[in-house]
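FW: tagging you since you asked about this chain on Friday. Here's the raw sequence from the shared folder, copied in full. Didn't touch anything.
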Amino acid sequence: MSSINRRSFLRNSVVAATSLALGQEYSQANQANNRRSRRSNRPNVVVIMTDDQRWDCMSCEGHPFLETPNMDRIANEGARFANMFVTTSLCSPSRASFLSGLYAHTHKVTNNFTDYPADLASYPLNLQQSGYQTAYIGKWHMGEQSDERRPGFDYWITHKGQGNYYDTTFNVNGKRTVKKGYYTHRVTDMAIDWLKQDHNKPYLLIIGHKAPHTPFTPEKKYENIYDNAKIDYPKTAFNLESKPRWVKERLNTWHGIYGPIFGFRKDFPDTSPESVLKFAEFVRAYTATIKSVDDSVGRVYETLKELGQLDNTLFVFTSDNGFFLGEHGMTDKRTMHEASIRVPLLVRYPRLIKPGTIISNMVMNVDLAPSILDICRAKSLKNIHGKSWKKLLAGRTSGWRKSLYYSYDYEKQFPYTPNVRGVRTDEWKYVHYPNGDSKPDQYKAELYNLKSDPLETNNLIDEPKYADKVRELKAELHRLMAQTGALPDKMPLYLGIKAELPDEKIR
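HL: got it, structure written out here
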């Protein structure tokens, strides 16, 4: 080969090699840019869930003394759903509904001792399959005896049972270790550590808090924060004349205002100053426990901000069910009264939500799964009961539900609430106790006009002038039960009474 040809060959080889290297570099850079582009167009998701936090225990909902500036910030910078409800006011069934978009009669988690079915679809699993990194950190509260990793999660930290407010043993990706200190902060620490890991894909993080579940235990710095707050019995505590007899019989039980509940021997209510102070202690402990959750919300917010991911994150705050603080003579939840079924829902995502948005339409826990999947453009869940509220964020309310169906099945471990089937609209609530066919006075139905009587003080069921309204709501209840596959209605035994609601009518 001549020297000229050799030089030409070498020059061409160098050019070719350089072009190849540049092409590979460009291809890798392009792929990285595409990954970043795909990630930036699909939001991260952070869901924070408390346990037993009623909707009005936030200052953005007008609480008289509880201050929640970090929850309020999510509401002010995003959307507050003013009418968010659970389909069953009990921890495990509600949590399963959040994950699946299904009512309890379909997902089959009807008590606090049943785990989420391993073969049942969920929004975390669908996000995982669509390329999301997924993590669950905190209280799982389904399948009490197992802390093993559940399907749909790449990263897993939880514990058996309820956990403790101090020094809980967590299963951290297969290794059990005691995390010393206050539960709310330890869970938040672990969540922040995970957020700070290198994520080359969009991610889902669910944080499950223990608070404010019983036994209400504020951290030390908040133990006396509301000592000077005026706390008295709620207006409805003793107004039980129009209620069914089971409500009055519940007073002395674990779920009644006269009974003991997790460390509080409630020697109240009566008119003595000592009893009022004891009730105030009960309420004060509940609300003070929420203060630490609010701090946690703030820490997660600031972490996302520091990482440059805040505005690229669908930030959701909610709770699994509400809680009675003396209303209708009750503590606990389970019934269909507002304090039991109504929970917070705050959502921040600037790409879709104008700051300070308030959604007044009724939404439910079964709507969370389809909404998240819709916003993240992931594969939808099939044959579910919930619907995406993404369009509500844009002000499109056409075709949205005008009524919702609520159900609760009696648990033999807690025989203080009968089977419940009910319907709620913006203005009316009809509560049906199927066992009432056997004992009509003890389990008589309840009817409330929520516009004129938002505290549900006056049960109108016995007033003849509302007979047409009762028939209308019974028909709507039947329609919703049929629509959700709840008919024919097979109920468990309650206090020795076998009751079955025929599928042809609601009595």
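FW: The CA atoms of residues 473 and 507 lie 11 Å apart.
HL: agreed, and Residues 1-38, 496-507 have pLDDT under 50 and may be disordered.
FW: great, closing this out.
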